[in-house]
């Protein structure tokens, strides 16, 4: 400010005015639009992520009557069976979560060893040419729609069970688990593969330079270093398996009886929801029971996901 | 002469190599044989009339084609993308370019990954109870489209965020140091560099959504429609039509044909995604 201004008060007044007025109209407009853009993008993100709170809250609200006003949580989960036609109707989901447990347990037992094997193969053993075709093959396997897997299982596994094992209907927990294990295989293979790749190269090379065999190096260095990533892979596969619907709906047999063996028919939680929702009147006890079943599923899946998240962060920290 | 321990060590190594080759081979054999089997059995069902006719016969789907199902699936996915892409990409821009702190960014990513992990049947249940019943949209194209949009949103958000994170920091920082606005950086640098990754994530999310029957089973689909699209009317979709044909179990040829169309869609979306990922300017 030049010193020759007429009076200090005018000077002060002008300074205030100058603060209020934009120094250059162009710059301030861009500052304003910048702020608008920031707020706009933030609003978009918050709206989207608000779903994470809204979906569980809404589900919990609809599930509330089934859990708290009926015979209670214990009856819903354990002691009641699914008998919508009895008098009074009973809605327990023991058969459903038992079926889910058996199917996911079996499919993990099939898919985990094979998935780890594919992960190790693609990172340590496979020549580059095979590695480059293995990756799209896994993506293909991961992309096949659930209903197509269900159909495929129906014409292969179920048919085979009927033809060779003399089962009256081949639909069974085992059939569903076999197909489900193929469905979760690519997720286990790629997640564990990432963990194997994250093991530092110098460790591997130092071991090999000492003259130990490749298996010795994998067993003593790669597997211990990748353990948390392998665990994350299993958890991810489990979360996938729990949520699959159409394949198990087609293959598990959709029976509300409590399953006693792997060759019994069953009805996992997802299949229960898909089967009954169409016939459940809005606000009926059955409707609320289905939401309670969904809530159980969602709580389990989100907990598993939280576990995976924590483990993944630990892997990344290892890498640094 | 090898000592006993070394002898076993060498054999264990051979066994390990053999086993991992067998498992790796299984990893190649499974997808190729599943897709090959379905295409081999289904390819004769596919003809021009299969693609352009409506289902006919009794039980329904015994003859005729699947045109209304193809139309319905495409319309649902277009509507879903119209919702999920702006939200997913916009949210990713905020996270990657404006996000205040890294802990806030981590929390948002965590929320997105939880959303992505929620089973698709729960999206269907939510869509049914909230959109179809509570908002009284009825079972309709618009309810199903919104449900699929919700399903795809976290997938696109995560994919777009990863693609934007992969853009070299030097570009961002040198642009900002020249004094341009963040909006300009997002538009002219981040989107220009990251669009192949965003396209790949979008195509994969769409491919996943188009094949899932669970979210549309109770929000959008009917067993039969004559075709013609109306936002407030239900539509046929490919995966639910396949499910219906499987449960009817009366027309194997049509069933294989429908499965093959879904597989072809998958192959298309996977190839587009792979091409986009490999895109270099």
Describe the structure.
The complex is a heterodimer of chains A (320) and B (281). Chain A is mainly alpha-helical and 320 residues long. Chain A has helices spanning 8-20, 25-69, 73-79, 94-125, 128-143, 146-164, 173-197, 201-209, 214-243, 246-251, 269-276, 285-319; strands spanning 82-83, 90-91. A two-stranded antiparallel ribbon of chain A has the order 1-2. The longest helix of chain A has 45 residues, at 25-69. Chain B is mainly α and 281 residues long. Chain B has a domain at 70-238: MetI-like (MetI-like fold), CATH 1.10.3720.10. Chain B has helices spanning 4-42, 48-52, 67-98, 102-117, 120-134, 141-165, 169-177, 182-211, 238-248, 252-277, and strands at 55-56, 63-64. A two-stranded antiparallel sheet of chain B has the order 1-2. In chain B, strand 1 (55-56) and strand 2 form a beta hairpin. Chain B is globular. The chains are: A mainly alpha (320), B mainly alpha (281). The interface between A and B is large, with 85 and 89 residues.
């Amino acid at each position: 400010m030049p010193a020759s201004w007429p009076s200090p008060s005018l000077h002060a007044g002008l300074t205030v005015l100058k603060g209020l007025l934009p120094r250059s109209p162009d710059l301030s407009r861009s500052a304003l639009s910048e702020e608008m853009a920031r707020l706009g993008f933030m609003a978009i993100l918050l709206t989207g992520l608000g779903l994470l709170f809204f979906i569980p809250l809404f589900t919990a609200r609809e599930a509330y009557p089934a859990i708290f006003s009926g015979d209670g949580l214990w009856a819903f989960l354990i002691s009641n069976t699914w008998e919508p036609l009895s008098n009074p109707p009973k809605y327990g989901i023991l058969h459903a979560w038992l079926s889910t447990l058996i199917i996911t347990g079996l499919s993990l037992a099939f898919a985990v060893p094979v998935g780890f094997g594919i992960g190790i193969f693609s990172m340590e053993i496979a020549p580059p040419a095979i590695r480059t075709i293995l990756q799209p093959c896994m993506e293909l396997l991961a992309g096949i729609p659930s209903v197509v897997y269900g159909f495929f299982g129906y014409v292969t596994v179920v048919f085979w069970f009927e033809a060779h094992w003399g089962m009256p209907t081949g639909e069974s927990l085992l059939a569903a688990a076999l197909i489900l294990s193929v469905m979760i295989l690519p997720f286990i293979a790629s997640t564990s593969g990432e963990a194997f790749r994250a093991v530092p190269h110098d460790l591997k090379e130092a071991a090999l330079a000492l003259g130990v065999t490749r298996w010795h190096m994998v067993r003593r260095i790669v597997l211990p270093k990748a353990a948390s990533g392998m665990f994350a892979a299993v958890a991810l596969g489990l979360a996938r398996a729990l949520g699959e619907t159409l394949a198990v709906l087609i293959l598990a047999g959709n029976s509300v009886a409590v399953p006693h063996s792997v060759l019994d028919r069953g009805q996992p939680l997802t299949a229960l929801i898909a089967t009954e929702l169409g016939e459940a009147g809005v606000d009926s006890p059955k409707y609320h029971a289905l939401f309670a079943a969904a809530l159980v599923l969602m709580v389990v899946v989100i907990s598993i996901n939280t576990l995976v998240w924590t483990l993944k962060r630990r892997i990344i920290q290892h890498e640094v | 002469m090898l000592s006993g321990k070394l002898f076993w060590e060498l054999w264990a190594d051979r066994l390990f190599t053999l086993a991992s080759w067998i498992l790796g081979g299984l990893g190649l054999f499974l997808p190729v044989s599943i897709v090959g089997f379905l295409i081999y059995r289904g390819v004769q069902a596919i003809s021009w009339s299969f693609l352009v006719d409506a289902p006919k016969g009794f039980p329904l789907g015994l003859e005729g084609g699947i045109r209304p199902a193809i139309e319905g699936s495409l319309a649902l996915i277009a509507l879903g993308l119209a919702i999920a892409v702006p939200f997913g990409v916009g949210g990713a821009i905020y996270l990657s370019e404006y996000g205040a702190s890294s802990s806030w960014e981590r929390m948002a990513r965590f929320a997105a990954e939880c959303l992505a992990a929620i089973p698709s049947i729960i999206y269907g249940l939510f869509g049914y109870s909230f959109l179809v019943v509570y908002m009284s949209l009825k079972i309709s194209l618009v309810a199903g489209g919104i449900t699929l949009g919700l399903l795809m949103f976290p997938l696109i958000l995560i994919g777009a965020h990863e693609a934007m994170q992969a853009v070299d920091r030097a570009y961002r920082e040198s642009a900002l140091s020249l004094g341009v606005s963040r909006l300009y950086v997002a538009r002219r640098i981040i989107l220009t560099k990251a669009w192949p990754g965003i396209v790949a994530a979008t195509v994969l999310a769409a491919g996943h959504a188009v094949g899932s029957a669970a979210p549309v089973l109770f929000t959008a689909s009917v067993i039969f429609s004559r075709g013609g699209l109306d936002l407030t009317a239900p539509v046929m979709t490919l995966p639910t039509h396949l499910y219906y044909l499987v449960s009817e179990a009366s027309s194997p040829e049509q069933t294989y044909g429908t499965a093959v169309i879904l597989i072809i869609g998958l192959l298309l979306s996977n190839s587009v995604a792979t091409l986009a990922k490999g895109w270099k300017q």
